[in-house]
Amino acid sequence: MSATILIVDDHDVVRQGVRSILAERPEWEICGEASTGEEAVHAAATFSPAVVILDISMPGMSGLEAASRIVGLGTGARILIFTMHESPRLAADVREAGAHGYVQKSQAARDLILAVERLLSGSTFFGSELDAQSEGTKAAKATPNSGISLYSAFCFR
Amino acid sequence: MSTSDISSLTTRLPVAIAPVAHWHDGESNAHVVQFYSDDSFLLDALSKFVGTALGAGDSAIVIATQAHLDGLAQRLRARGLDIAKSARRGRYVALDAAETLSKFMRNGQPDPKLFANTVGHVVARASAAAEGKNPRVAAFGEMVSLLWADGNAHAAIRLEQLWNNLARTHSFSLRCAYPLTVFCDETHAEPFLRICSEHSAVIPGENYTALRTDQDRLRNIAQLQQKAEALETEKALLQALRHTKEELEKEVAERRETQRRLCDSELSLRELSGHLLRTQDEERHRLGRELHDTVGQYLAVLKMGLDSLNSSRALQGDAASRRLSDCLNLTEQSIKELRTMSYLLYPPMLEEMGLKMAIQWYIEGFSKRSGIDVRFDICPALRRLPRDVELAAFRVLQESLTNVHRHSGSATAEIRVRLEGGSLHLEIKDCGKGIPPNVLDASREALGTMGVGLRGMSERVRQLGGTLALLSEGGTTVSASLPCEIESSCS
């Protein structure tokens, strides 16, 4: 399945890393790169990519805001948030921005290809099954006193 | 010595100790001052003075207060004098003292020309009206007394002098009167003497003049001398007391000043430490972000590369793949460490999710790192609080748990967080070896030898108007209360 992909990250080295992971799928074409939210919106309007891989923390407009603007363009781009950021609210924030999934940077090699495939097929990706499983197990184990196991949920996984 | 001896001694006294000043034996231009204690005594003496003059066909001028004018008129009539008739003939002139003063006083001082015109005119007319073989004028004035009572001693003395000047061109016998009560202050001694010296004769108050015999008067003088002596001693004592009082006041002022300076420097120290704490927070925040956003990114990309190498078939052979695996583990370890470090520097969830979540997150990590079993009880209704309060509470918890880990030797810790009465109450309790007494004492007093960590906590809490208490009893308990505007509580 051929597809065009836009990579947005303010760190050059991260964009390189993403490129090298995606190189595994030669039928996917990297149609452009951007390093700010504003550039991302502009590039999305210009290239109409099938998928936008979008960092959150960038100088100026944040990735989440760029996401809702790209959705607002109406080009039908699927948006994958790609972040270092970890918080229990992440999934909610991503959904609220109108994006279609997220991947933790530290799990890029494991999850990125899979996530892009899911988005291309019209589905979403909010963490891999591995995470979901481990979270479920931990939540079940958590004592009533300690509430949800936040520490393992969003810090050390 | 027998009584007759004393009386013979008395008769041999060289100086008359009785006052002069009866109208008939007075010289024509006498200027006599009469001191008195009681108004009725003055009026009696005055009516005798004026009455004798009027009776002899002479003229009388009385410049007095209205009360004294009335009292005098009453007494003169009682003596059978027709003062109305004398007044009509110009032989009895009664003038209000205050009103007469106003005619020649200028800028708080008697004007010489105006005085000479005003009073000179009155004297000349009275003089012309006098009858008899050797017509004379008797004058009584208490304008000086009014000036003195007003606190204008200088004007009073000046007026006495103007009367003396007038006597050079006019013939009259003048009597002034002052109540003794107006000379009640120590500072009156000098002007009092000057007033006396402006007069040709002085009549002491009735306490003295009422005494009949010379012996009584001598006794009175001796008694007054004794009183003066006693007063001198008392005065010296008073002076010493005044001196001591001044010294004490000076000392008090100095201490107040020192205290004020101490307060000032404490205030500026507090401001400084507040500033340092804020700077530290900002610095931690920046450092945490920076670590996360830069080194963290590189590590993430490094891991991406290693992961893809690991999964590709390019690398075969046990040694290489084992080494790659080691690199990957090390990278993952670095990512974890870095994340922990940056989150401890400034926990992002404190800002995003609030104190409740951040505490739970921190406790969980702390337990893993330290092996200490931490139980916590956080009031479920705990909502978002002002940023300062959340950060301070989090730092107190962080510092306290670090102390539990480093110093207490306790295997467990208990945390309680409550929002009550508009304040956030935080309690961290362990069952370790407690705080050394000297550190505990220092914490109750000036924080002198208190550890830096404790002092930082205490200062942080104090900056927000809260309190921090340490208890060392079967372990250590740190209790912090932080006022926050939110008016809700856990019930």
Q: List unreliable stretches of 5+ residues of chain A.
A: 132-157
Structural class of chain B: alpha/beta
* Major pleated sheet of chain B: 6 strands, parallel
Kindly report the spatial arrangement of strands forming the biggest sheet of chain A: 2-1-3-4-5-6
Low-pLDDT sequence parts of chain B: 1-15
Q: What's the alpha carbon Rg of chain A, rounded to whole Å?
A: 16 Å
Question: Largest inter-chain interface?
Answer: A-B, 32 and 36 residues
SSE arrangement of chain B, N to C: HEHEHHEHEEHEHHEHEHHHHHEHEEHHEE
Report the β-strand fraction of chain A as a percent range. 15-25%
Mean pLDDT over the full residue set of chain A: 81
Helix content estimate of chain B: 55-70%
Q: State the separation between the terminal residues of chain B, measured CA to CA.
A: 103 Å
Mean pLDDT of chain B, rounded to whole units? 86
Spatial arrangement of strands, main beta sheet of chain B = 3-2-6-7-1-8
- Note the overall shape of chain A: globular
Strand content range of chain B: 5-15%
Architecture overview:
The complex is a heterodimer of chains A (157) and B (491). Chain A has 157 residues and is an alpha/beta fold. Chain A contains 7 helices and 6 strands, in the order E-H-E-H-E-H-E-H-E-H-E-H-H. Chain A has a 6-stranded parallel sheet with strand order 2-1-3-4-5-6, sandwiched between helices. In chain A, strand 4, helix 4 and strand 5 form a beta-alpha-beta unit. In chain A, helix 2 runs parallel beside helix 3. The longest helix of chain A is centred in the last third of the chain and has 13 residues. The radius of gyration of chain A is 16 Å and the shape is globular. The C terminus of chain A is likely disordered. Chain B is of the alpha/beta class and 491 residues long. In chain B, strands 3-2-6-7-1-8 form a 6-stranded parallel sheet, with helices on both faces. A 5-stranded mixed sheet of chain B has the order 9-10-11-13-12. The N terminus of chain B is likely disordered.
